[in-house]
Amino acid sequence: LYWIAPWLIVSRAVAAPDWYLALCISVFTFGIFLHYTSDMQKHMALSLRPDHLIDDGLWARVRNPNDLGELLIYVGFAALAMHWLPFLALFGIVAIIWAPNMIAKDKSLSRYPAYADYKKRLRRLIPFML
Fold this sequence. Notes:
The chain is an all-alpha fold. The chain contains 5 helices and no strands. It has helices at residues 4-11, 18-48, 65-81, 85-109, 115-121. Helix 1 runs parallel beside helix 3 (65-81) and helix 2 runs antiparallel to helix 3 (65-81). The longest helix has 31 residues, at 18-48. The two termini are 24 Å apart. The model has no long low-confidence stretch (mean pLDDT 93).
């Protein structure tokens, strides 16, 4: 399913305006930054403070910043295709794979005493929205 957007771009010879390309590249680039930076923060935090809830840095804004970053990466690609099908595939992946994994992670993190407050303060995926 990840190959739908690139296939549509190439097979349909999609030519987007420059401003649109810049927007898609910006979304993709911010997604790369967010995904890898949050993964590195998680790795370092767990290395230095195992058995502690990570609630600072990027994790102080949203409960799954690495998933948000990955979502932005795929949104950037999907938008480049200028077609609805990549968004449908992405929605399916989020609904079938990512959402259940985030729910399972929330259940696992509920063992921390500070988690109830953390969950109340922060959204699961998109700050101030979702």
